[in-house]
Amino acid sequence: MPAKVRAERTLKPYNMNWNQLLSAHRSTSTSRPEDIRSQFQRDYDRIIFSSPFRRLQNKTQVFPLPGSVFVHNRLTHSLEVASVGRSLANTVQKQLLKRSELHDMDLLSELGSIVSAACLAHDLGNPPFGHSGEKAISQYFSDGKGAMLRDKLNEEQWSDLISFEGNANAFRILTHQFEGRRKGGFALTYATLAALVKYPYPSYPTDPQKKKYGFFQSEIASFKHIASTCGIPLIDEEKTIYARHPLVYLVEAADDISYLIMDIEDAHKLRILSTKETEDLLLAFFDDDKNSDALAYKTNIYKEVTDTNERIAFLRATTINLLVNEASNVFHTYYDEIMTGTFQSSLVKKLEGHYQIALNNCRNLSVEKIYNHPSVIKIELTGFNILGTLMDEFTEAVLHPNKTYNAKLLSLLPAQFKPQSQELYPQLQSVVDFISGMTDLYAMQLYKDLRGIS
Predict the structure, then answer these.
(1) Radius of gyration in angstroms for the set of CA atoms belonging to the chain, rounded to a whole number
(2) Which long-range contacts (CB under 8 A, 24 or more apart) does 346-352 make?
């Protein structure tokens, strides 16, 4: 079927309904009449008290951990994204109250809880050593010793392995029943889970325009059920592409705003950026005419605060607040497209004028001076070598468990990650589950132990 005809058939407008979208349904019922928390507040608490979330404190965000200057790790980043997401959701909520299509108006008060919970969980699937960890796992299969397994897996399974994706891994952590754990994983509400999936399609069939994806083959059935319950339309049946849950745009914007601005602040603390460079980058978000009150407030604060880091922290806070309001405006500008599943952008990319210029300045300088800084490159190279070695060791052990060395190696796997299936794909997933869940320090120490390095 020609692409144009298929698009016309699959992209018919479909108005999503907030009463379905904000579903409090879970894979397992755990309601307690005496619990004063809402269902969505319970989601937030389940995530924040979990081991995978706690391990984020020892996973690299951008700069090496630990250092003499405290910078962001995955845990502090996730907490801040959750805070920004809650503010963004509450701002959007005020505008939605003016619309009449939501029958249960009390549900709107839960937007902040849903978005903040999804934000809190958005990086749970990231492996140690940041994005280099993702690449190390992928390239073990595409270019390393794992390439010999290609003919033993189908196209869909192989695509998952050669393009390991932290977003899909987060969805797996939250929904998969690991050995010895309860059914449904975290058993979060479907609204929170759907709000987490930025890329509502699998890795295969591949699309050059879509470099990331939202769930592995093993979790497709789970996502389909969640999408059906929440009333999220399937927009391309052939490629299993769904529309985004509207709250995904808020989670994504909170992440975009947080990492871009916070990386700038971290670079200033580490003296990679000068105070003047940092001030110029952040002040560029403010227009003399549109944001005159904010600029006047900034001037007054600057008279009181003389500490350089505090000044930058204040400027960072006002910049984030400004971007939250602007992103909220974009959400409402494109509300109809968002609700029909036809909006094909992030909120931040739709910011116009001096906002987009300021964002581009931050992005360009981040690539030039932050992401390519020697300290960042070194930790990426370290992580690449460590994870590549661990993938090699444990995959070999899973494939040949009866060898003495391999049997001892497999004894190191926690019970929840021990292979329970005789099929190759889930066996390989158990290795990836184990290694991707490690902290930077644990992966480094295990690598040293296996190599006899003191």
Answers:
(1) 23
(2) 346/249, 346/252, 346/253, 346/256, 347/249, 347/250, 347/252, 347/253, 347/256, 348/252, 348/253, 348/256, 348/257, 348/323, 351/323, 351/326, 351/327
Q: Is 8 exposed, middle or buried (0-12, 13-18, 19+ CB in 10 A)?
A: exposed
284 contacts 148 by C-beta, under 8 angstroms: no
What is residue 56's predicted lDDT score, i.e. its pLDDT?
Answer: 93
The whole-angstrom separation of Cα 234 and Cα 342 is: 11
Tokens representing residue 246 in the block: 């509207």
- State residue 371's pLDDT score: 81
Domain spanning 252-370: CATH 3.90.1170.50: no
User: What does the CA dihedral 327, 330, 331, 332 come to, rounded to 10 degrees?
Assistant: 130
What are the residue ranges spanned by the domains of the chain?
3-57+69-242, 252-370, 374-449
**What pTM does this model have?**
0.91
Looking at residue 70, what is its pLDDT? 62
pLDDT of residue 109: 87
CA distance linking residue 30 with residue 43, whole number of Å: 11
Question: What is the CB-side half-sphere exposure of residue 420 using CA atoms within 13 A?
Answer: 8
Query: Which pLDDT belongs to residue 208?
Result: 65
d(CA 251, CA 86) in angstroms, rounded, equals 9
Regions of the chain short of the pLDDT cut 50:
1-9, 65-66, 68
pLDDT at 6: 44
Tell me, what's the pLDDT at 29? 66
d(CA 340, CA 244): 9
At how many degrees (to 10) do helices 74-96 and 111-121 cross?
160
So what's the pLDDT on residue 9? 45
Task: For residues 98 and 297, give the distance between their C-alpha atoms in angstroms, rounded to a whole number.
Answer: 30
Q: Which of these CATH numbers, 3.30.110.30, 1.10.3210.10, 3.40.50.720, 1.25.40.10, describes 3-57+69-242?
A: 1.10.3210.10
Q: Which of 196, 27, 187, 216 is CA-nearest to residue 122?
A: 196
